[in-house]
Amino acid sequence: xxxxxxxxxxxxCKRRGFIFPGSDIYGGLQGTYDFGPLGVELKNxxxxxWWRANxxxxxxxxxxxxxILMNRLTWKYSGHEETFTDPLVDxxxxxxxxxxxxxxxxxxxxxSKDLTEPRPFNMMFKTQVGPVADDTSYxxxxxxxxxxxxxxxxxxxxxxxxxxxxxxAQIGKAFRNEINxxxxxxRVREFEQMEIEFFVMPGTEDAxxxxxxxxxxxxxxxxxxxxxNLQVYTVPKADLAHYSKATYDLMYRFPIGFEELExxxxxxxxxxxxxxxxxxxxxxSAKVGRNDDSTAKLTYFDPESKxxxxxxxxxxxxxVDRGVLALLTEAYDEQQIKPVTPERAQAVAEALAAFVxxxxxxxxxPVEQRDALLERAELxxxxxxxxxxxxxxxxxxxxxxxxxxxxxLRGQVEPTLDESYRTVLHLKPxxxxxKVAVFPLxxxxxxxxxxxxxxxxxxxxxxxxxxxxxxxxxxxxxYRRQDEIGTPYCITVDFDTIGxxxxxxxxxxxxxxxxxxxxxxxxxxxxxxxxxxxxV
Length: 536
Ligand code: GAP
Hints:
The chain has helices at residues 6-16, 37-56, 72-77, 80-83, 146-151, 153-160, 205-222, 270-274, 320-331, 342-361, 367-379, 388-395, 404-420, 446-461, 475-485, 528-533, and strands at 19-21, 33-35, 61-64, 69-70, 85-90, 97-99, 119-122, 126-128, 138-141, 166-175, 190-200, 230-234, 246-254, 257-268, 300-302, 307-309, 312-319, 332-336, 421-425, 436-440, 467-469, 489-493, 509-514, 520-524. It is an alpha+beta fold and 536 residues long. The strands form 7 sheets. Strands 3-10-11-17-14-13-12 form a 7-stranded mixed beta sheet, with helices on both faces.
């Protein structure tokens, strides 16, 4: 697998309709992204796989979908009003704001060392509820889905009659006013979480913590992340969140290096205790703030000891967006399928050199765009044949389109990419946005077209597989377009299929081509659904 850069992923995602910058036509809104036709399928498939593994395939889990807006008191007693902060510094020279722990002592924007002392900045978004704006009529957009689970603990317990240990799973949006959203969908202001609060008998939490770590690692591997790209980081005591007794961070090797994909925290009885009334009667082990507003004791009646107790909590909390980014990083591959001729390589090298020179001289380009382009161009290696898609990503960067010689460079790179390379997303078939693509060998042969369209329709309607029909290019190009979005199977309908080819024994069969091996085999139309179903 080739190591992929963030630029290559951003470029692929925008070009093929996985992920677009939010509010793009109005200049964007920093830290927001919109999932396009392919992105929404991939994201839904990831969430469905998580739900299936954690809710349907276990017998100790219930699901929940709590409201995003919650009574403000939730966030007072959860500790978020007071402690959900990042340390922020201001640059007195250029007025940029930074997270103190993300920079050393120099402003990354202007290089000034004249920075303010760090001060806490609360990351929750505030919004007004109802028509009257006053000091009490506001709510927060939830910064985590977890609290919706804790405040519903008693509701779920009484309606399902669950016994410990059991969990509540939820997938939903979370919002954080990140000071410096960055790295594509890695750190954004609006994202989704897949969270479990797993309630256990006090004293059993360490064993459950380990079990959940093992389960979650196994699950990420099952959706396609390789063991080499996953690491476990034990968060040092001094860095633990206010609610945590111990936390494992599950780290993935993103293009920016190993970073957190999921946190698995041991939260003791902090949360249920914090949201309970009459806390002094509960024998809590966690130190919680006094709660005079709650109307409930969030306890569990243990039939064996015949006493009410506050369960301990293990919380596996994963980010959907980071999950999508990890899947794309892992799946991305570029393969050379034909050598690049020396003439072609020479033409690309010359066009690239001319483009870089023109960027350096440009007076129209904003300085930061010019510097970013030159910096990226410098990273392109001498082995042009191996860098073709990096050049293409360079041309997709902000400002590149305003350089006239960019068009000439694109004119050299794109045919080379088309002829000699294929980009493949080796996504697990169950996660691939499109499962099958159907092509007619000739788009002006009515019987072939009708058969192809009929196959597409029946695979999608009866086979319940997201299927597309495409006749907008030669077969080789159509295969390449599907490889790039991870479609596991392409089906081609030809003259043999309709009984007008050279081999009469192939009547009623189609060519099925495998994305990863590029191997092709003939399959009877009648057996297509069964054939594909065993594989996707
Ligand atoms: N309830 C616990 C909790 O929210 P967290 O470590 O703050 O813990 C859990 O968040 C996961 O949510 C992270 O591991 C990450 O995958 C995702 N996440 C957190 N902040 C994010 C952000 N700004 N952008 C994208 N994903 C984020």
